[in-house]
Write a structure and sequence with these properties.
single chain; mainly alpha; Four Helix Bundle (Hemerythrin (Met), subunit A)
Length: about 90
């Protein structure tokens, strides 16, 4: 699982970096507020991806830090950088 997780996370990271480059290269036709909001969101996700990569390295990837239960593989496939299982995520929102 760690190898697959690492591959998925690197793909997510690469996608977000590409999005940031596109935003940075966008001309004046893109509204500044929309561009800044998108950039903030992408940067937040990049931080989450980097944190998930650190969890892969330290062996804690795939385990919810709140309840200590494994995060379902299906959830990790959809959102590979998630830190929490669904019930714990709902409690943090």
């Amino acid at each position: 699982m760690p190898h697959d997780a690492h591959r998925r996370l690197e793909h997510e990271r690469s996608s977000r970096l590409t999005q940031l480059q596109a935003i940075d290269g966008a001309g004046p036709e893109v509204e500044e507020q929309v561009m800044l909001a998108q950039k903030d969101t992408i940067e937040r996700v990049l931080k989450e991806i980097d944190a998930a990569l650190a969890r892969v390295r330290d062996g804690s990837y795939g385990t919810c830090p709140t309840c200590a239960k494994p995060i379902p593989v299906e959830r990790l496939e959809i959102l590979p950088y998630t830190q929490f299982c669904v019930p714990c995520q709902r409690r943090t929102d």
